[in-house]
Specification:
Elements (H helix, E strand, L loop, with lengths): L1 E6 L13 H18 L4 H7 L1 E12 L8 E12 L4 E10 L2 E14 L4 E2 L4 H8 L3 E8 L5
Protein name: Thioesterase
Pfam family, one: 4HBT_2
InterPro entries: HotDog_dom_sf
Amino acid sequence: MYQKTLIAGWGDMDFNSHMRNTAYLDKSADVRMMYFAERGFPMSEFRRLRLGPVVMKDEIEYFREFHLLDAMDISMRLAGLSEDGSRMMLRNEFYRGTTLAARVTSTVGWFDLEQRKLVVPPPALLEALQALEESEDFRVLPGSSR
């Protein structure tokens, strides 16, 4: 399973002294991009390809709080993938020790920055996606490329 340990930083906090909702989305995106960078797709490669992930939907579930400087283990699994790889669901789970604190499920597509539409990813990028561990509720998604 892919996992990174991050810290709840000053800018992640809200008025109630716990991690703000958009910080969960930011941390999920950070872990996502770390994964792709480790598999040969750093930001420079996405720029070269004129391709990027575009989030179409995010769902956040909260179970426990994070406070300033709390460590969090954030996992990433594949919750869904279209056969052509143009569309995916990525699931990040946030843990405080062994306790599940939050879950973010993002529906994402590959966006061609020149054509301004969803496209099929290059084979090596699709392979990187397929290498992710699948969630227990993994499902095949319809393709989104035109």
